[in-house]
Amino acid sequence: MISASVSGSIFAILLGLIVPNPFGQTISSIPNYLFAVARSTPVYLMYSFPAILIYGVLTSILSDRVSYYISTKMKSEKYEMIFSGILHTVFGLILLLYSLGASLLFFITDRVLQKKNKDYTPLQAFKSFGIPLTVWLIFMGIVYLEHIFNGS
Fold this sequence. Notes:
By secondary structure, the protein is mainly alpha-helical. The protein has helices spanning 2-18, 30-73, 78-92, 97-115, 122-127, 130-150. It contains 6 helices and no strands.
C-alpha cells in the first residue's frame, strides 16, 4: 500500500507534466502550461490512484509470489526480480502505455522500499495515504489560487 501511495502520486504528477491538457487545447505560454499541469494532476490522481491501489497491489502481490515460487524452483534468487519485473510488465499492459508506466513505476517504488529491508506496520501503510492526499491538496490549492488571481 505504501508503494501504491508513492507511485500513484508520482504517476499523477508525471502524467500531468507529460499530458497537461488531455483534451488537446493549445498551450501558449509557460504559465498556461504550469496551470494546466496543476489542473490535470488532481484529476489524474483521483482516477489513477484507486486503480493503482487496488489492481496494482493485488497484481504486485501475485507477481512477487509467483516470481518467488519460480526462483525457488530454479534454485536461484537472482531470477526473482527478473520474473517479478516481467509479470509487473505483463499486468501493466492492460491499458497499454498509461498502465504500463504506472506498473513499472510501482515495481521500481516497491523494489526501492524493499531494498531498505524494513518491515512496515499497518499504521505506516495507512499513514502513507497522506501522500496522495497531500499531493491532491497542493495541486488543488494551486488551482484555487489561480482562480483567485485570474478572476475566473
